[in-house]
Amino acid sequence: MSLLAVGTVAFDDIETPTGRAEKVVGGACTYISLAASYFVKPIRIVSVVGDDFPADMLHYMEHRGVELDGLQIKKGEKSFFWAGRYHSNFNSRDTLDTQLNVLADFNPVVPEHWRDAEYLMLGNLTPQVQLSVLEQLTKRPKLVALDTMNFWMDIAMEDLKKVLAKVDVLTVNDEEARQLSGEHSLLLAAKAIYKMGPKYVVIKKGEHGALLFHRGEDMFFAPALPLAEVIDPTGAGDTFAGGFMGWITKTDDTSFENMKRAIVYGSAMASFCVEAFSIERLKGLTPAMISHRMQQFAELVRVDFN
Ligand code: AMP
């Protein structure tokens, strides 16, 4: 099974209540592909960077089974840059700066031999680019998931609605679900978003876990693992999406029951992500470490009613 992923590959400046990191590797597609690489290979990415992006990071991604034929490297240009500052609860943040740079006029090209992708993760970036990638495919993937954020709702809502109408799964955080739907109740928000296109809506609630809605009716909840120390929540949502789609692609099963497992795998991968700045904690994980974390999730909610 193959997974095609789209999204930013970027530099971030991050400020948390306990520390800061400058010009570190980030980007939705970076987190998605590294997280998914623990489940399935190859991961194929469509994205763009400037020639300021470190070659050793690209080599590391290749080493993890990420194929870069769809990554454009623009000579003399700068990579996408984002700066954010987290509030004292680590759960909400302010965007301090977004510099589109190479993303401003990015024209994505899906390599010919990738156009029959079975699974597609449209990670966070310009909705127009997400739509263009979807339209270049020669057959409809078995499952298309979309992640986005308030930034695009603010400046490109119409394009976002066009792409939303064509996807199966939407992953957003609770604030974004409310902004997109105009509903405060997350149940009503999920029902409203279902009417916009996606059969499945995943609402991420940071340290309070994630909700999965199917057709605005069936519901599932997975908690987040309580951790002694959170260092940097950046990329947790993308890592979640990478784990989620990595599991679905590996198992080639898009049933609601399997999506529940995927939600827990996504949550487990996100729990690693927040333990260090940038993508550092997503390096060098082992199957044993991931399966131990899955056990911790299972224990967290296991209860005997007899
Ligand atoms: P998350 O914490 O999962 O929302 O993802 C944070 C990552 O998304 C950072 O590494 C940023 O580089 C990237 N990012 C921030 N803003 C945007 C945006 N408007 N579009 C695409 N990617 C973004």
Task: State the total count of DSSP E strands.
Answer: 13
CATH superfamily: Ribokinase
Task: Tell me the series of helices and strands, N- to C-terminal.
Answer: EEEHEHEEEEHEHEHHEEEHHH
CATH topology: UDP-N-acetylmuramoyl-L-alanine:D-glutamate ligase
Compute the average pLDDT.
96
Corresponding CATH architecture: 3-Layer(aba) Sandwich
What radius of gyration results from the CA coordinates? 18 Å
Output the strand order for the largest sheet: 5-4-1-8-9-10-11-12-13
| Small molecules bound in the structure, each named once | adenosine monophosphate
**What kind of sheet is the major sheet?**
9 strands, mixed
What count of structural domains?
1
Contiguous low-pLDDT stretches (5 residues minimum) are none
Distance between the termini: 41 Å
What is the 3D shape?
Answer: globular
By secondary-structure content and strand pairing, the structural class works out as alpha/beta
Task: Write a brief structural summary.
With 306 residues, the protein is α/β, with parallel strands linked by helices.
